[in-house]
Design goal:
Helix content is 73%, strand content 4%. By secondary structure, the protein is mostly helical. It has one domain.
Length: 317
Amino acid sequence: MACLPKFSKIIMKHNTKITIILLTMFLVTQIIGLFVISAYNNGIPLPYGMEPPEEIKQEPQGMQIILAFAIAITLFFILTKIKAIAFIRLWFFVVTTLALGLALTVILFKLNITYQPQYLALLIALPLAYIKIFKRHLLTHNITELLIYPGIAAVFIPLLNVLWIIILLLLISLYDIWAVWHSEFMQKMAKFQINNLKFFTGFFIPYADKKQKQKIKQLKQKYAVKGDKVLEKQFKKAKIKVSLAILGGGDIIFPIITAGVFYKVYQSLIPAFIIMASATLALLFLFILARKGKFYPAMPFLTIGMYLGMIISWLIF
């Protein structure tokens, strides 16, 4: 069982190994996203009552989605202020379970498990979500992240068209700039999640130099048998400096949604792959540009990359 270390500072410039790991996880999630999206776009209905009526699909719901995002962010802010830890964990547990269920349903269906795969998917999702939210297992956390965002994206894609995804990306980018560079709300939210909720919505990779790794190894050998709480206490006493490589969930899901919308509109994987590739290159550019110890909003970089991908797609189609 791995414990999340105490949050201290988000390091935005990482070594080559960590950068490659983050980029690979991002790209794998995008590929899984296209796999899930293509399945739901080609005949598999969304389970758990999430399939929108045909009349809703015919009319883009961009404004409603923007309003829903605004309400969710405001609600999360209020809940953090009143420190409603139990409620937030329950909220994220339910969302995580459903999102995993949506992605796993497609995987099971493709494995020829065609009789009620959505319920088997839930049975698999429940323990994974429980471990992720309540047990803070690092490997489980990052593995489930690969499936959560494809599942969530599948819900929003039928409700958007190209115009609305362009608008949505612009608004989210402006919000990201404000939240990171002006109000520092994003940093505070990440700190609250890691320190208080003991989980993070996004990829989360703690790493240390050789000296710190040796200290961690010695502490684990000495205190691991006494339980996670004792081990965590000893980590605090030892003042071990652990750097964090993180990538927020919004930075992962919006490229999936964008690629999915283009796949739905053009009924081709080519524009979706172009947008996926352009987003990955934009993220790589951010990692190269970023300086250690500074904070950067990822969405403006990703949005510019995806806009370029859109232009290339339009030139082709």
